[in-house]
Structures are given as C-alpha cells and as structure tokens.
Write a structure and sequence with these properties.
By secondary structure, this protein is an alpha/beta fold. It has four helices and six strands. The chain has a six-stranded mixed beta sheet, sandwiched between helices. The termini are far apart.
Length: 161
C-alpha cells in the first residue's frame, strides 16, 4: 500500500463531495461539499475546480480519486461524460495524478447509510455528497490494499481536450 493522503471526489450536477484518507490509506473521512460551478463542456479554472486544487495542496494529497458513474450494465452515461469532463478540468489544475474509479451506486449507498442513521435525505443533500465521496475513496483504498495496485485508470493530462 502506498503511503500518502488521497482525496476522493463525488461529482454531481449541483455539488461536489470531497473526502480524504489518512496518511496510511486506511480510512476515508468526509471533508466538505463544494458548490458545482464548472460549466458543462468547458475546461476552465472554475471556483469548484480551484477549491479542490487548493484542498489537494493543503493536504499534500498524492492523488485525487474521482468517481466514474457507470450504468449498472457498465455502459457510459451522460453522468459518466460529465465526471470525465470534471476530472479533466481538475487534472489541468493540479500536479498529481487524477484516477477515475467505478462508483456505481455510491450515492444510493450514501442515501441508505444516512437513512439508517435517522437522517432525512432531502435536508442532508450536501452531506450525501460527502458520504458518497467517502464511499468512492474507501472502495479505492480497499481495492489497492487487496490487490497491491492503484485502482481505476489514471487520467491523461490531455484527455478530453
């Protein structure tokens, strides 16, 4: 298992959930929810991308793990394209690798976990985004620990341009 903090990202239409791991890559915890400002189809230095880049630098994270929402069949969807677009913009703003990892059902799992704890999903939407980011990152950490190799695929700095 590689040593170093990782940053987890759950990309949504209105918000972006952030999580982080500990230095040893054992446990993911929520950080914050960032309002989504990156326009679809553009690669710009929007405030959401800049905030995530700032968090990455503050934590000295060795990589950023972005959830890739695939259909249950494994097919790509409009949300998949949006997450790839966001990850591309993020890769342009940071100097560490951005990894795309399968995140099927992470938001559903987050909503279920909050419901189980007695929280109403509607009033806790920003928290759902953070919990989804935790689920994405924890899955990536567990996968790396189990296989010995980093999960998902590394985004090419020129992908999507």
């Amino acid at each position: 298992m590689r040593s170093g903090v990782r940053l987890g990202v759950d990309v949504g239409k209105a918000r972006v959930g952030l999580s982080r791991s500990d230095l040893h890559g054992m446990l993911a915890t929520p950080i914050e929810t960032v309002p989504r400002t990156l326009p679809e189809g553009e690669i710009t230095q929007s405030s959401d991308v800049l905030r995530i880049a700032e968090v990455q630098r503050e934590l000295d994270a060795i990589e950023v793990v972005v959830g890739l929402p695939l259909a249950l069949s494994g097919a790509e969807t409009a949300s998949t394209a949006d997450a790839r677009h966001f990850a591309t913009a993020l890769q342009q703003a940071i100097a560490v690798p951005v990894r795309l990892v399968d995140e099927r059902l992470s938001t559903v799992s987050a909503q279920s976990a909050l419901r189980s704890s007695g929280k109403k999903a509607k009033s806790h939407r920003p928290v759902i985004d953070q919990v989804a980011a935790v689920i994405i990152l924890q899955h990536a950490l567990d996968s790396e620990r189990g296989t010995g190799t980093p999960p998902g695929t590394t985004l090419s700095p020129n992908e999507g341009l």
